[in-house]
Amino acid sequence: MLDGEDKIIKNAIDGDSSAFGLLYDKYHSQIYRFIYLKVSHREEAEDITHQVFLNAWKNIEKYQIQGYPFSSWLYQISRNLVIDHYRTKKTTTDIESISESEFADSNDSLQKTIEVNFEVDIVRKAIFKLNQEQQDILIMRFVDELSSKEISTALGKPESTVRVLQHRAIKNLKNILSENK
Amino acid sequence: MEEDKLIKILKGLKEIHPDQTYTNRSRMYILATPKPKAKLTPVFFSKKLLSAVRYVAVFGIAAILIFSIINTTSYINENYSPVSLDGLNQKSLITEADEMNNSISITLKQIQYLDQSNQKALNTINEISKTKPDLSASNLQISTSTASSTLSINTFLIPNPTSSTSTPSSTNNINNMLNQVSQ
Which of A27, A68, B80, B129 could form a disulfide with B136 if both were Cys (CB 3.0 to 4.6 A apart)? Predict the structure, then answer.
């Protein structure tokens, strides 16, 4: 959460584009990562992320400051746009066709060893096999490191449910990985 | 794969970042987009006011409904109910209670009167026994012969004017005794 985020959001609501620019800088990578892991396609992830922030800017007056981070609202918009993306696309992405180079390009630190890269790619593909809800929770909790409270706000579910779903998602991911061996 | 290792790999995915050229281009485009001005809503149509009016209306209608249901039920019960219960009629209950009260107070008066007369009779007998022991002895014989009977007691009592059980003979007995005492 940004320092004085509430004030920045108020300024953005009042039409201050530079204030919204600060919010963009803070949350853009996080939202992009979330979308990229869900669609597994760089250009599609870029398009959807752009649309998320454009929608947020156009509708920021609808955001109500309630002590929750601005990211929860952005995650809600992202989830809806990803669902719309799959609804309109109406074709399933072939897991094997996901280019490994897409990930490798974006992660220089993980290119150090081929072994690590290989494992990361397997896990990324396994995440893609989970259902949308479990994907959301795993990415939010372990990749973007959100708290259970932030995830519960973003998903509109109680914290206890989030914890149960998280446990189930990890279990399913392990099963998928063991099946792929 | 172990859970710890899995979580470590998941955390490693944090290194995914968008292309910087795309990020700058997207940022510029979004911030250059004119933000549509929010429609100004009059104060009397504001969300808070509307929700307050809604709550007041809901509670008001609920109160009116409850009040009318209670009134209608009681009216129908009093006037048109085929199974109207007398026990629920307040006026008849009060009348009945008054009657019971009256009968209880009459009975109490009778008991009080009988008690007083009994006391008088006993006092008289005591006086007789002190002044005329021979007379009292003869009376005692009479009284001991019928001591177990409640009728014998009644023979010494002044009759209750309201009581139907009093007999002229018992009244005469006491009067005779009183005459003897006076002589």
Answer: B129
A24: domain range?
1-93
CATH of the domain at A44: 1.10.1740.10
Chain B residues close to A20, C-beta within 8 Å: 30-31
- Other Cβ atoms closer than 10 A to A180: 11
**Is pTM beyond 0.80 here?**
no
- Number of domains observed in the structure of chain A: 1
Q: Please check whether residue A140 lies inside any domain of the structure.
A: no
Helix (H, G, I), strand (E, B) or coil at B161: coil
B17 with A144: Cβ contact below 8 A: no
Determine how many CB atoms are found less than 10 A away from the CB of residue B26. 22
Q: Could you say which residues from 22 to 81 on chain A have a Cβ atom under 8 Å away from some Cβ of chain B?
A: 24-25, 28-29, 32-33, 36-37, 42, 45-46, 49-50, 53-54, 57-58, 60-61
Q: pLDDT tens digits for A122-176?
A: 888 888 888 888 899 989 988 888 888 888 888 888 989 999 999 999 999 888 8
